[in-house]
Amino acid sequence: MVKVLFVCLGNICRSPMAEAVFQQMVNQAGLSEKISVDSAGTGSWHVGEKAHSGTRRVLQQHGISYDGRARQVRDEDIDPETYVVAMDQSNLSDLRLRFGDHPRFYRLLDFATETSVREVPDPYYTGNFEYVYRLVEDGCRGLLQYIRTKEGL
Ligand code: 4NP
What we know:
Number of domains: 1
Strand content: 5-15%
Shape: globular
CATH superfamily: Response regulator
Bound molecules: 4-nitrophenyl phosphate
CATH class: Alpha Beta
């Protein structure tokens, strides 16, 4: 099983959105038995909470269901084989501080092809969940292509 873990700060806005969008793409590609998808936050403030209402609303508008609860990233998440995909540079720096170097730490928008934006802006502050959705979709599409090539799927 190829494992993909999306990481943001709170695990209520961006990484749950990426998890849900990517899971749908994996399902549509018929790869749900080959690729597992999860998300977590570097921070612990929102552990146990549902995704932010803005994230739930935008996912629902795009026909995607999601019922995950926030959790914090754990030592056992950081397996060398896991694709750990952060939403911004600050998430990546936090991951490196805590877990050191890892061969598969990525930033989601480094896989995007339709935007030159490289940091997923935090909608917790901007309120712009639809814009974040479009960025996340672009990044997830590129990420799936990258993993398929790399893993021969
Ligand atoms: P996320 O957004 O990292 O995309 O889940 C945030 C959610 C909560 C907070 C910050 C960012 N917070 O400071 O509580």
